[in-house]
Structure formats: structure tokens, C-alpha cells
Amino acid sequence: MNDRMSTPWGEYALARFPEDPREQLRAWDAADTYLLRHLAESGTPLTGSVVILGDRWGALATALSAHRPTQITDSFLAHEATRANLARAGAEEAAVQLLTTQDTPPARIDVLLVRVPKSLALLEDQLHRVAPGVHEGTVVVGTGMVKEIHTSTLKLFERILGPTRTSLAEKKARLIFCTPFPGIARDTNPWPYSYQLPDGVGPVSGRTVVNHAGVFCADRLDIGTRFFLQHLPRSRGSERVVDLGCGNGVVGTAVALANPEAEVLFVDESYQAVASAEATYRANADGSAEFRVSDGLAGIPAGSVDLVLNNPPFHSHQATTDTTAWRMFSGARRALRPGGELWVIGNRHLGYHLKLRRLFGNSELVAGDAKFVILRAVKK
Ligand SMILES: C[S@@+](CC[C@H](N)C(=O)[O-])C[C@H]1O[C@@H](n2cnc3c(N)ncnc32)[C@H](O)[C@@H]1O
Fold this sequence. Notes:
This protein is α/β, with parallel strands linked by helices and 380 residues long. The protein has helices at 30-41, 59-63, 76-88, 120-130, 151-160, 223-229, 250-258, 271-284, 318-335, 352-360, and strands spanning 3-7, 10-14, 50-53, 70-73, 97-100, 109-115, 134-145, 164-166, 173-178, 193-196, 208-211, 240-244, 263-268, 289-293, 305-310, 336-347, 364-368, 372-378.
């Protein structure tokens, strides 16, 4: 949806990435506009090093591009959206320094703006990472929808940066004001977090999984992933296998351990996920694997892949869930060679078999239980 966000700095046409005419979701919300209005009305000096953490689709970076901010995000899609939104606003891409959550943050931060992420763990990790650059005079303002800001969110700011309070709610959004206290005795960053897999999950049984903050099911094995690990296809010879939406990489690592000749490609749109997958793989295997931050299989040559394994993301918003799964499945169809297979695990109620039948002309049930199904589609 291409929509206009009105701010004290002007109006901006903003869109999510990739743009999808079927998806009527805005690229900004009341939390973004509340923060921007507050900055203008309070006369906050936006000088020195301005850092924006967690900007969802680049709304904040685009509106503040004249202040040459640094944007830090875990999302490849957010970076692409920011690039496109800057171009729409007529700003040069170099106006915003785009960093990932894995990059080293600026050594000095004078203004820190935090769009509270959905994952509390990611907030914890990122506040720890930026904390050394925050000084007594740093202006720290967070923003989020009321339902995204909990006592635990405020406690993180308190524990890692300093005393914290919140604003009144406006249009269901709230601001967070934090006064940095440089002498704070903060704990060490607990991330990344490793745990050992249980028995009974095939080749990765008892193996170590490494999770950077914010990845899917970072502290335990997801029950759907467990079911998938128990029913993975046999891979033979020098097959090219893609772990699509790899998260911590446990699925692709299982394939690599079962078939050391397989060339496994781990793909995710989250920088934290791809870093986790690489760490999980390196902790357990030493073959040749590739790690790629990308939107699904975009950029993978057509017909170059033998097997795609996919546990698609499920968000609270059904439209997002559907369009991402559709993009992943259609990308897999393009990337697979004739005879190549896509294996998908999903909640039974999501009805993925209908999408697979439309795209591939076939869909076979490999395994199922009360909650999950594993489906196989073959490229004809
Ligand atoms: C349900 S998790 C599965 C993680 C892992 N494969 C597992 O089974 O534990 C879905 C993953 O898809 C990733 N994802 C979401 N949108 C994506 C996209 N457009 N391209 C690539 N990966 C994406 C998410 O970041 C997340 O890691």
C-alpha cells in the first residue's frame, strides 16, 4: 500500500517491501507519527550522531533523512523498504547509513530513537549493543503501540540505560523517555544463546543450536520444527538443498549431517537468523554451505535447486502470513529443477496444500498429527 504519512517535516509516500497490491497494510503507524511529532514539538536537537533502532519500513529514517541518521535493523525487507521510501521522498540513499543488528553500532550516539521491536530479546540485545555509545547527554526516546510496550519493556531500558518513564497514550501509541545513567551496573549481554537439542530428532539429536536474539524459538525447539526434523526427506549425493526461512538453521544442519555431500544454502530475511544458522552449522558441520540474507529465493537461478525445505513464518496478521508463504512457494517452484521437491511444514488449519496444488499442480501429505502437516510438492 502506497500511502502518505503526515509529519512536521512534510508528507511522505511510504510503502512496505516488496510492494504487494493485495496487501493493504500501511508502512507506518501512530507510534511513528507520535515520535516524530514529539521530536518537533519538544525541539529535540537532532544533531550529532542520530541512531534509529528497529524502524519497521523506514518511515522514521525517511522523515528524518535530513539529519543523516543511522538506521539499525534486523530485517532485509526493512532495509529494502527504506531504500525505496528514501527514493520516493527524493532523498539520496547515502542520507541514511543502513546498518544491520549484526554490525558494530556507532561509537558515539547523541540521539537514540527506538521503535520497540516485537521481540523483547532483540530489544535486550540491541540496547546492550548500543549502550557503550550512549552518554549522559544522549536523548533516548522509544515508541511503540500500547500493546507492544509492557512493564518488561520499560525494565529493559531501566536496567541497561537508565531511569525510564512513559508518555500518555495517543491513538493507542506511547512514547518511552529514558535518561541515560552512564554509571549503571548493567549485566552482560546474554545473547547469543545456545542450547542442546533433545534426543529423537534425527541427525541433530543432542547437537548444539546457536540463537542470536530475536530468532524464531530462540530458547527451545519449536514443536513444528521438531516434527519436521523427524520426517525430513533423504538427501543423496551432491544435491543442492535450500533451508528457506532458516531461522537458527537447525533444519539445514540436519540435512548437512545426514548427507555431507549436500550443498546447503541457508536463507532468511533476518540478519540475526542467518548469523544464527551459520553459527549452528559451524558448531556441528564443516562441509560447504552458503548463508544468504534475502527475500525468499529472489536471485537464486531458476532450475538450480534439488530440494527446498520450508517452515513458513506465521504472523498474527493473516494477510502477511499468506503473501509471504505464497512468495516462498512460488520462489521455490522457480528455483527447483524439474523433478525437484518442496517440503513444507505448517499448521494444519493454514491450508498450504491448496496453494501448493495451485502452483505445482500437486501436493502430497508426507506426515501429519493433530496440529501439523508436512506436505511435498514436486516440480513437473
Ligand atoms: C517459522 S520460522 C522457521 C525457522 C526455522 N526454519 C525452524 O523451522 O525453526 C520462519 C522463518 O522465516 C523467515 N522469513 C520471514 N519472511 C521471510 C522472507 N521474506 N524471506 C526469507 N525468510 C523469511 C523468518 O525470519 C523466520 O526465521
